[in-house]
Amino acid sequence: MAESHLYASVRSPFGRFGGGLAGVRPDDLAAATLHGVLARLPRLEPVKIDEVVWGCANQAGEDNRNVGRMAVLLAGLPTTVPASTVNRLCGSSLDAAIVGSRMIASGDADIVVAGGVESMSRAPWVLPKPERAFPAGDVTAVSTTLGWRLVNPRMPAQWTASLGECNELLAESTGISRARQDEFAARSHRLAAQAWAEGHYDELVVAVPGTDLGRDEGIRPDTSVEKLAALRPAFRPIGTITAGNASPLNDGAAAVVLGSASAAQRLGAEPLARIAGRGASACEPHLFGLAPIEAAGAALKRAGIGWAQVGAVELNEAFAVQSIACVDTWLEQGLRDAEIVNAWGGAIAIGHPLGASGARILATLAARLRATGERYGVAAICIGVGQGLAVVLENEDGA
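Below the sequence we write its predicted structure tokens.
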């Protein structure tokens, strides 16, 4: 089977909820990022793109009707370029990259653009249709921004608890304290600010036309453990999870260009990394925060390596507690140092626009491997309703 490689990546800055990108439709945001990643490969003729695979978690508003195809059309690509949209909630764009890499491996495609978008600011309210005609009572508009809505009553209540409550349960079961969570969150902001200051994101991020946002909007360089400790719990009167140690609501998009080894000439570029292993896992829905553990294990096994050979990890920080729980387990399994996880900051600081986060961590992982000269890295993400995804990248020039 053919090997899949990552050749280029771009993402938008990640905007706060109601912030600098709130005025941009998600299909326009996707198109801008798609256009931006192709600008990294000027020798690529867009007509040679075999497929665009796009991720999006919501798809209840302006991102409906196959937002991947809308991005292709709005970006001015040839109408002959096909596109699809996949939904694996928070893992959607990592899933899109996995789908694209499998298409290349199977020989069904030679060049695939994968990515994802989410505008949590513009996610609409929805009204369910009545079960009978002419109801006399009131109806409630339901927000589609995040989490469960219009829940099937046959689902066990434990499975449909809020994401925050699920992670409060995780904190109880693991004994991970509020202090550890706040320390992890402060580290995320400190390292993200440092990475921007050192120029690590300059080539990975492109501004969205019509906006003034040039950097991730949620990073707070002046935050501290003391400031985070002063925040009130968000989900329980006496809890551990706050708005400061969980990922925020965000808007953003990200994209990567994947290709076979033989596509290098048409792309006019050398590969940044090889996709060496892929893994998916599933568990009880309320335990979703732990799902990256098994997904990463599966990806490492398929790559033929172990944790001792991994030099960089990008783990999407949905919540500090679930991130800590994953890292603690990986250390027990042989991860050599917790400091190689999210060394350029994570989603608590940078943001977590659901459909875009998987492509973001994959692109950041490839850039970190090139910057440090490490050979292998893992990108992993937890997914609501009890799933996880992971990808192992190989820097073939790495030590």
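Residues 4-122+248-393 form a domain with the Peroxisomal Thiolase; Chain A, domain 1 fold (CATH 3.40.47.10).
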